[in-house]
Amino acid sequence: MKKTLAILLTLLLSLSMLQGAALADDPVEIVFWHSLTGVQLEAMNEAVAMFNASHPGIRVNVEFVGSSGGANTGVTDKVIVAINGGNPPDCVYFDRFQVAQWADEGLLTDVTEQMEKNGISGDDFYDYAWMEVEWNDRIYAFPEEIDARGLFYNIDHLAEVGYTEPPKTIAELAEYNEKLTIKNGNLYSRIGFIPWLDQGNILTWALAFGGEPFDYEAGRVTVNDPKIVEACDWMAAWAEEHDVETISDFTSATTGGDFKPFSAGIVSMYISGTWDVANVRAQNPNINFGVIPVPTPSGENNKCYGGGWCYIIPAGVPEEKVEAISTFALYMTTGEGAEYVSNKCGRFLAYKELNEAATWHQGDTEYEAFIEMFNHTVARPVIAQGASFWYELKANLEKVVQGIDTPQNILNEITNKINAMIEAAEK
Amino acid sequence: MQETNIGKMVKNHTGGLMRKQQIAGWMFALPWILGILLFYAYPLFSSVYYSFHDFKGMTPVDFVGLGNYKRLLNDSLFWTSVKNTFAYAAMAVPVQVVFGILIAVLLNINIRGRGIYRTVVFMPTLVPAVAVSIIWQWLLNSQFGIVNYALNLLGIRGPAWFGSVQWAKPSLVLISLWTVGQTVLIYLAGLQDIPGDLYEAATLDGASVLQRTVHITLPLLTPVILYNTIMAMINAFQQFTLSFVISNGTGGPADSLMFYTLYLYKNAFNYFEMGLASAMAWMMFVVIMSLTLLVYRSSGKWVHYMGE
Lengths: 427, 308
Hints:
heterodimer, A: 427 residues, alpha/beta, five-stranded mixed sheet, 18 helices, globular, B: 308 residues, mainly alpha, two-stranded antiparallel ribbon, 2 strands
């Protein structure tokens, strides 16, 4: 027994020595999690391969981790579990609007020093992208891209019913919808427009109607702003008028598969973001479409929210690795990796210098349409309850549309709930 | 004298062997024991601990006593999720039991191609729950789904299924019936356990098919029905995947698919309320445990074990 133990111990010891010797020469291993698929996945893999080839001291291992519950906000639950389990991945591709809340909960590694060391500051990025990664004057993420939301419209459908121009006002939207919608008996074969499809949500319309969802001075949610109530009243009225239950299935039809109803030609207009230009083209190469800013009541004062993704380092990652991880994250957000991915899948970068120098979108009218929109794009409220606020808005959209309660009551409830969370945190 | 010595030696020897065997036994069981301690006992007991703490990000900070439990009782969405879960269980459990027995009885009839029918009924249970959700999301789509298309051909206007607050839960019950194959298998085994001579005797006495079913099949199937009822109940209370996938994680339309476990998940991962979520898990445990005991207690009145 003693002998066996002695042999085992010697073996273990020599193994650990071997490992120690190996570490001295081996590159730093970085585990990188993402939830990308399709073209995006290909571009990511190629950019990482480029990084590994040009950085012999670092080795990035890309691991695909399924998105959390189709919420399209990437890997979140698995990262929380990994952090709490004490074995987080070294780097994660992350939906940026959640950074403030995660940073506030202590789930992210502070990368301020790394940014400074590499001479990178907020001025190098678009404001609303930088705003999302800053929390209590510290930086918690590397912003990669920016997006904006606009109205996608099918040019051929519009021409079919005699329109050569897209709708610019809310009133025009309704008018176009009436002409574009085709109903055979009980079933619709085409719907002109559904305000709450895809990226059409409470925040989209709140901003289009000129509402302010958050008061930064007071530090309180103001989503019951009369203009936002007006926006939701409009959506509720639309739903009541247009047989909400039936047309809602046009919305749910998008969740099961990746095919957009717009790409299939069964919806003529919808709200979506920059990334969908590539998706729609991939799904239906023959579709002839255009993009304009989200319509507003007056047809002017366009405003939309934008976000984008970023690279984060979860809390609990060994300190000695942070520098190598940052090198990788910077390569993917401000370096050649960013340039490559942006060219390959049509992503607007948050890093100004590269975005302005980019040529991939030149002469591409659908993408160019977004460039002007970036001027009136704002971030989602950057607060410690940001992610919760967002999920609350998402969950309540259906209550508005299904007429469960009046928009005023629903918005009051959200306001009170989030403000109570803010107040509790202040104590 | 010598004999006893030998006796002692034998005893010692076997004692050593016993001990060796015992050690070997424990060693073989060790992976399982470690597994259950590490992956069941530890998380289970730490969730009791967390349920009494304000646990948000990394580490539990403040002891809040029954604070999490009190907060839940005052949370309207918590009660919505409780109501939804009970409503779903109240529909799903009886329907599954009745449907399961019916199918099992039909599959027990000696007809040609019985094996094929049995396979067909069992096959859907092999499909992963997420795939089931997505398949049915398409089948039951009110506009492009094949179910409403067929209904339309018959001149019936199909409901909006997942688009409607009234129909969302019944739609899930419908899906759960599709994957009832596992329970049908257990019912079938139960049916085959019933001695054939009972039926012969009853037939000789002139009992009809209905009488034989009511007076022989059903009473003798009750132990299996008890088991399947309890399992169906537990499954119904833990329904998560279907609503999570179909509502895209929102619990919609308008919270009608906001089940208890989905709300638990949202608290943990959308609102970072790990302590609250742990408290929810324990409340659920107590409720399921009590209901199971209740059903089990009542079983003395309606379950007949053969040979008693």
